[in-house]
Specification:
This protein is mainly α. It contains 4 helices and no strands.
Length: 114
């Protein structure tokens, strides 16, 4: 086992534990925790048994397994950035609607007072 594999295994186990802690603190809902644990277990498997990934890298004509990890990480980061952006836009629109509703309610309330 190489030092980078050992580091990857320690990282994956730490992230599984952190995901579990966030789920217990109710920061993550069940499906969030399930997705992240799946990702960390897949990383743990891939780092522990990299030769098993030859089935994937041969047809894709990827030379090294590390290249596959890098490509996968970039795809994952783009997907996460997209989801975060979409959630941010959704929350922004919800906040705008709430503020607008509160402003109109305050205006009606002030109108009724005078």
């Amino acid at each position: 086992m190489t030092p980078i594999q050992l580091l990857g295994i320690i990282f994956a186990i730490a992230m599984i534990y952190l995901t579990y802690v966030y789920y217990k603190k109710k920061i993550f809902i069940y499906y969030d925790a399930l997705i992240w644990i799946y990702i960390w277990v897949a990383l743990l498997f891939a780092v522990s048994f990299p030769y098993r990934l030859d089935i994937i890298i041969q047809p894709l004509k990827i030379i090294r397994i590390m290249d596959l990890f890098t490509i996968g990480a970039v795809f994952l980061l783009f997907a996460i950035a997209f989801v975060v952006f979409a959630k941010s836009r959704y929350n922004e629109r919800r906040i705008e609607a709430i503020v607008k509703e509160l402003a109109l309610a305050k205006r009606e309330w002030e109108k009724g007072e005078t």
